[in-house]
Design brief:
The complex is a heterodimer of chains A (about 800) and B (about 160).
Chain A lengths: L16 H5 L15 E7 L5 E7 H5 L4 E6 H6 L31 E2 L5 E7 L2 H10 L1 E6 L6 H4 L15 E8 L1 H9 L3 E9 L11 E7 L4 E6 L4 H12 L7 E4 L15 H13 L3 E4 L2 H7 L6 E9 L5 E13 L26 E10 L13 H19 L3 H8 L8 E2 L5 E2 L4 H11 L5 H10 L3 E10 L7 H6 L8 E7 L5 E5 L8 H13 L6 E5 L16 H27 L7 E4 L2 E4 L5 E3 H9 L14 E6 L8 E10 L6 E11 L6 H21 L29 E6 L16 H18 L13 H19 L1
Parallel strand pairs in A: 1-12, 10-11, 14-15, 20-21, 27-28
Antiparallel strand pairs in A: 1-5, 2-4, 2-6, 3-5, 7-15, 8-13, 9-10, 9-12, 13-14, 16-17, 18-26, 19-20, 19-25, 22-23, 23-24, 26-27
Chain B lengths: L2 E7 L2 E7 L5 H8 L18 E4 L2 E4 L12 E3 L12 H8 L9 H14 L5 H7 L11 H16 L4
Parallel strand pairs in B: 1-5
Antiparallel strand pairs in B: 1-2, 3-4, 3-5
Helix pairs in contact in B: 2-5, 3-5
The chains are: A alpha+beta (about 800), B alpha+beta (about 160).
């Protein structure tokens, strides 16, 4: 029998596509249960108000409304608050403030969209009618909205017991060494910058279906989640106080997440609790307007940064101060994003010997802010790569060469940075060189001249990013305050007739695990891909799982599958040794065949699987029947994908319109399983980064009203905005996981914004523009051009 | 008040009784349980709900069910011929034009409408033609490739 063709490293077309392309995907809103009620949530129209009387009868009077619940009802049942999974310890050992976050507000609302009540009705429209009819007395209070105001004396307080709205005031790195580096510096480059607040906008709105079965007292929550086991744990242990073995959480097909579907949201707990309360299934699906108001937002930093260099451009020290917006409540992983996912990345690809960063996290009367594609790492990369490019301008050095001069060299790995991480491997010059070549940097001046001849301004910008992915070694995460382990689990089960069912704790919501993971399993076990099924997203079917985020699915989840496969092969060798009457140590496994070394005696994987389930002559004291193994994999370190992005833009100086003319991405993701899927991940990530750089910005007015509350107001990237990209990969395999994989999901969103903004600043340099904020909309760019021209004219007078 | 409506959906005559405010997408998803057509927004911007009504694309989230009375509707479920995918569906698979799959039904229906109007679309035609469809996953590049290939496939009657 010929072994199936190996597919790892090739662009196998996705197996999951068939159901999505024919309308047979099964998303949460596609699920309906007999007798279900529909939930509509009543949300605060005020950024801050004291809650008065809620007249539930006003909604109950609406035809079709079956029940109305408020925060008081949940409190009476002893329901707890939504927890935060990461405790950050600030300066002087002061732990972060964790104010309560009841699923339905109690006493006070703290952001527009804060959840006040739920109306359950026989139809979606009746529920909405009931929600509209519900009379609630609000006593509006002053709100604090912007980071710059949140810490000011006399600012409105978001929580009574959180003085100055400070969640934590934290630092990392060696302050004394950094100060000393600055004292000895020949040049210091300074930068103030804002990382604009974003709204994630997975195209599938969040949804949840809660069910209760009185027969055995069990609950089922079907929800739009990237990590159903995490939701089960948080909801059972902290919110509803339910035994985990009585709760099943299912995350079926999920229409994009980008971080926003990691978190445990109020609606999940409410529909689960209410299902038992009324004895009927409860279904809720967000409208897009609710998504804008209640999906956790991303980014929202205000920072100052300083880079100290010697006279030839060698980096000596980096000093960073950042204010980070937490919104009104601490979401599931909010506290870790501006600390351990941000400041630990400030070394970038460079040998900067001394770094000190201070981060103050503040509460405001806005939607909670948490991880969004990249989570902290885009903020670090934007700051560092904008700063380095400014340094190059000030030092009159080529931005590529200034970077190259300061790169950590290949012979310096493993490399311990001054901000807690140890990079395992990389070759930063290799990706820079390939990107320079692919982008035709050598002939940039010609293109700039051609643009100029057309009345346009052309600029080029760089970004050499690094990220810490494969989240995370549990011991490290635990030492830094994580309240969970961050391993992954897998089970590989042979069925008697030779097909394989793989249960993974990773969750696919666009990443293509059903294909990529099957490629790995098929190659390693020597079975056809068509005989491998990947099962994910159900706590009742999968042993355990920490889910998908932080570009961890392949590096951590894939590694767990490999560990389970290794156990299968070990067990197979035992069975083969028995069947072939050989010593276990003499059995070799290759390409799906177990053979006795040096003989022609062999059995195929399929034959071994069959024997495992039909063990008519197994020595029962030595050999267990069955071929089903599970494994937990806890990574030894983070992984460190890195690369170089180069962007060329053309700016119309009359309109401020920016066209991304060419975008080059060269990434080192370690070993790649399916290049087509990886490239697709980069495409999408870059599009989101381009969105942040040019289009997207969440805007609140001074009263805390969300101005960008719909697709009419919040500019999403469309097909018209995205250029064709130029792509390539370099490869230094990860040294500490069995796949050599580093992860690829977030790179595009991390690396692209600084490349684009640097390019715009480069283009506008001749006009005297030295900075551009994100998003660089035509209006913003036009204003910067006008201001520079006015200032030039004034100087000339 | 309920209104009786009848329409032909994916070649099958269906009828129902709906509230006047019932949207076409609600009729498709909740009355007919054709859940391939999705709802991604409430302002007619995202295009996840696009279906063909009498051959032309409409956003079924901003079309009333009663407007479909007497019409012929094609949804994503009505494209494939048995197990043979429509050329545009095949092209999306061939060119990795989808990731999470949520925008995909609307994207495919819009692309088919575009090609019906512009048989050999240029990149610019496609970018403009898909302006009413949002995708957060793919960055559109592979969708562009897929639609080009799908257009060719529709010309020749072959898969992309």
């Amino acid at each position: 029998m010929n072994a199936p063709v190996k597919t790892v490293g090739t662009s196998v077309k996705r197996t999951e596509d068939a159901r999505f392309l024919t309308g047979r995907g099964r998303y949460t809103d596609d699920i309906n249960r007999p007798g279900q009620l529909y939930a509509a949530f009543v949300r605060s129209p005020h950024a801050h108000a004291v809650l008065g009387e809620i007249d539930t009868q006003s909604a109950l009077d609406v035809p079709g409304v079956a029940a109305v619940f408020t925060g008081a009802d949940m409190a009476a049942d002893g329901v707890g608050g939504l927890p935060c999974g990461w405790q950050v310890i600030g300066k002087s050992g002061v732990p972060m403030k964790e104010p309560p976050h009841p699923p339905l507000a109690v006493g006070r609302v703290r952001h527009v969209g804060d959840t006040v009540a739920v109306v359950l009705a026989e139809s979606r429209n009746a529920a909405k009618d009931g929600a509209e009819a519900l009379m609630i007395d609000y006593d509006p209070q002053p709100a604090v909205v912007h980071l710059a105001d949140a810490g000011a004396p006399g600012a409105a307080q978001v929580h009574d017991d959180v003085a100055g709205n400070v969640c934590y005031d934290w630092e990392i790195g060696d302050k004394a060494a950094t100060d000393a580096a600055f004292e000895g510096a020949a040049h210091v480059t300074r930068l103030d910058l804002v990382n604009n607040r974003l709204i994630p906008n997975a195209i599938e709105p969040r949804a949840a279906v809660g069910e209760y079965d009185p027969a055995d007292g069990s609950y089922t929550l079907t929800t739009t989640s990237q990590n159903p086991h995490v939701i089960r744990l948080l909801m059972c242990a902290f919110v509803l106080n339910l035994p985990e073995h009585k709760v099943r959480v299912v995350a079926p097909d999920v229409g994009g997440g980008f971080g926003s579907k990691i978190f445990h949201y109020a609606e999940e707990a409410v529909v689960t609790w209410a299902a038992a309360k009324v004895g009927r299934p409860i279904k809720w699906t967000a409208e897009r307007g609710e998504s804008f108001m209640t999906d956790c937002h991303g980014r929202d930093h205000v920072s100052t940064a300083e880079l100290a260099m010697d006279a030839d451009g060698t980096f000596l020290g980096l000093r960073v101060r950042t204010l980070a917006n937490m919104g009104a409540y601490l979401s599931t992983f909010a506290s870790s994003v501006p600390t351990y996912l941000y400041a630990t990345l400030l070394a970038g690809q460079y040998r900067t010997p001394a770094i000190h960063a201070e981060v103050k996290a503040l509460f405001t009367h806005t939607t909670p802010v948490d991880a969004y594609r990249g989570a902290g790492r885009p903020e670090a990369t934007y700051l560092l790569e904008k700063l380095v490019e400014k340094a190059a301008r000030e030092m009159k050095m080529d931005p590529a060469e200034l970077r190259r001069k300061n790169f950590i060299r290949p012979d310096q790995f493993p490399y311990a940075t001054p901000v807690a991480l140890t990079y395992d491997t990389g070759d930063y010059a290799a990706s820079l060189d390939r990107a320079l070549e692919l982008s035709e940097y050598a002939t940039f001046a010609e293109r700039r001249a051609a643009s100029e001849a057309n009345g346009k301004l052309r600029g080029v910008g760089f970004s050499c990013y690094i990220e810490a992915c494969g989240i995370a070694p549990s011991a490290v995460a635990g030492a830094l305050g994580a309240r969970a382990g961050l391993y992954e689990a897998a089970e590989v089960r042979f069925n008697p007739t030779g097909s394989v069912t793989v249960f993974t704790g990773s969750h696919s919501h666009g990443q293509g695990h059903e294909t990529t993971f099957a490629q790995i399993v098929a190659d390693r076990l020597g079975v056809p891909m068509a005989n491998v099924e990947i099962v994910h997203g159900d706590t009742n079917r999968i042993p355990f799982g920490m889910g998908t985020y932080g570009s961890r699915s392949l590096a951590v989840g894939g590694s767990a599958i490999v560990r389970a496969i290794d156990k299968i092969i070990d067990k197979g060798k035992k069975i083969a040794a028995h069947m072939l009457e050989a010593g276990e140590g003499d059995i070799e496994f290759k390409d799906g065949v177990f053979s006795v070394a040096g003989t022609d005696k062999s059995l195929t994987m399929g034959e071994i699987a069959f024997q495992a389930y039909v063990p008519h002559n197994f020595p029962h004291d030595k050999l267990e029947p069955g071929l089903d193994e599970s494994a937990f994999y806890d990574p030894g370190n983070f992984t460190y994908p890195a690369g170089t992005y180069i962007c060329e833009v053309e700016v119309d100086p009359d309109t401020g319109h920016v066209t991304v003319d060419r975008f080059t991405a060269v990434d080192d993701f370690g070993t790649i399983i399916n290049p087509m899927i990886v490239e697709g991940q980069v495409h999408g990530g870059v599009a989101q980064g381009l969105g942040q750089a040019l289009l997207e910005g969440c805007v609140y007015d001074d009263e805390g009203q969300l101005v960008t509350g719909s697709y009419m107001d919040y500019a999403m990237p469309r097909a018209l905005h995205i250029p064709d990209y130029r792509f390539d990969f370099t490869c230094t395999p990860c040294t500490h996981n069995p796949l050599g994989a580093k992860g690829c999901g977030e790179a595009g969103a991390i690396g692209s914004p600084p490349a684009i903004i640097n390019a715009i600043i480069d283009a506008l340099g001749p006009l005297g523009v030295d900075d551009i904020p994100m998003p660089a909309t035509p209006h913003t760019v036009w204003q910067a051009i006008q201001a520079a021209r006015a200032s030039t004219a004034q100087a000339a007078e | 008040m309920s209104i009786a409506i009848t329409m032909t959906v994916n070649g099958r005559e269906v009828s129902g009784s709906v509230e006047p405010r019932t949207l076409l997408v609600e009729f498709l998803r909740e009355h007919l349980r054709l859940t391939g057509t999705h709802v991604g927004c409430d302002t007619s911007q995202c295009g996840a709900c696009v279906v063909l009504m009498d051959g032309a694309s409409v956003k079924s989230c901003t079309t009333l069910a009663v407007q479909g009375d007497g019409a012929t509707i094609t949804t994503i479920e009505g494209l494939a011929n048995g197990t043979t995918l429509h050329p545009m569906q095949q092209a999306f698979n061939d060119h990795h034009g989808l990731q999470c799959g949520f925008c995909t039904p609307g994207m495919v229906m819009s692309a088919i409408d575009l090609v019906a109007r512009v048989p050999n679309p240029t990149d610019a035609d496609i970018r403009k033609g898909l302006d009413g469809n949002l995708c957060r996953c793919t960055g559109y590049q592979n969708i562009l490739r897929a639609v080009k290939a799908g257009a060719q496939g529709m010309q020749t009657g072959m898969g992309g």
